[in-house]
Amino acid sequence: MDLRLYDTLTKQKQPFRPLDPSNVRMYVCGPTVYDYAHIGNARPAIVFDVLFRLLRHIYGAEHVTYVRNITDIDDKINARALELRGDRDLDVLEVVRELTERTYAVYQEDVAALGNLPPTFMPRATEHVPQMIAMIRSLIDAGLAYAAEGHVLFEVAKKADYGKLSRRPLDEMIAGARVDVAPYKRSAMDFVLWKPSDANTPGWDSPWGRGRPGWHLECSSMIEATMGETIDIHGGGIDLVFPHHENEIAQSEGAHHGHSLARFWMHNGFLNVEGEKMSKSIGNFVTIHELLADWPGDVLRFNMLRAHYRQPMDWTLAGMKESWDTLARWYDVAEPVTATRIGDGFLSALSDDLNTPQAIAELHKASPEELAGGLSLLGFNPISERLASKKSVDTVEISRAIEARNAARKAKDFKESDRIRDELLAQGIQLKDGPDGTTWEIKR
RNA sequence: GGCCACGUGGCGGAGUGGUGACGCAGCGGUCUGCAAAACCGUUUACCCCGGUUCAAUUCCGGGCGUGGCCUCCA
Fold first, then answer.
1. Residue A64 has what pLDDT?
2. N-to-C CA span, chain A
3. Would the ipTM clear 0.85, i.e. be above it?
């Protein structure tokens, strides 16, 4: 089965051939740990987890390395820590540490609840500062970076193909630059590799004074540290194309004699909520954490996979409901299956640039064995209990009511039996009479 | 303003130069005391205007519309 993936750099679907089939390497930009992750953040986590699983299926589980980083050095974190401290007598650096630890822990729980496998490595920026300093040195040595006033900047003009990923000619970007140009910059587009820290900001000693790395640097550095100079796939949200990934390319290629950073660049589309862009001011900011409080993670995951990863997607409550219904029906069919298999149509859909909607369509036509196999490959464990509502219900009470109703039905006291049924329905319990007796489910 | 996506039936959502994916909803039926669930069957589509072609929803050009990036952002 030929895997084809869309590459942002060439803007084409290309056949995927790993550099080394015994070690397929993929890196995905992870979260900045300063606040709960929102459902937009869940999309790349889920999409690239599916890709991870597909690669493991094709090349063998032990032959795929998946790295997703944790950004725990960032000015948003620092700003939040200052807010949290307020005027209390606390060490801000300590608040930063607590904030990142706590947020990191919640993130790990949340993505696991979404059915994602743990990546092979989850490196953190704070653990790679020496490597970052070393990379800055290489860039200075290569004549691509310069130090000025405690900063080190990447000199974009020195890299002839800068802008190749986002397809932005350099002169146009400078003309359109809206930022105030810092006096120490040689050009408006030059970006920061290192910047000074004050007493209230985490900092590390370096040849350019106590400071901290610029955001883009950590990914370049951690890719090098965990997987080497050139990897097979680099993924992330489409909004990261510029400037983040563009700058990663500049840094990594600059520090590695022009050797390319990634052979495939993959970007997932944006997510809207009920037709609107998610934003705190509109009040439609939905976090993974709060969603998991009343929806099974499987439902959130399935909902995400109903749209192709590159398409913009609209997250809606109606869609969640539909996802739940489909999954519930499928789990009933797949749960008793013991010998699973992967259908050809299903696999070729997935192999066509991760066409999950097509793959799902194939599952609708599949045998129970293929359905179970497909669900499993997509990261679902078809165990009906996993779909149980997070709402607490008194199952003993429900069983008793069902017995009472069936007794009434037997006695042909339909007025009473319907009364019980309606009463349960009012509580959100939907009864289902089947040939093997009565079951129930939570009505959403 | 620059760059880039996208526009498919009531809804979600693939795909293709020529026999109207798939799911949900709707409708008809089986089942049921009646419903629900389940199962079987089934109606509805390709933004507008040109062009290429024997043939365009699919390719090309233009228009309109929506969204993204250009500043932190998945």
1. 98
2. 40
3. yes
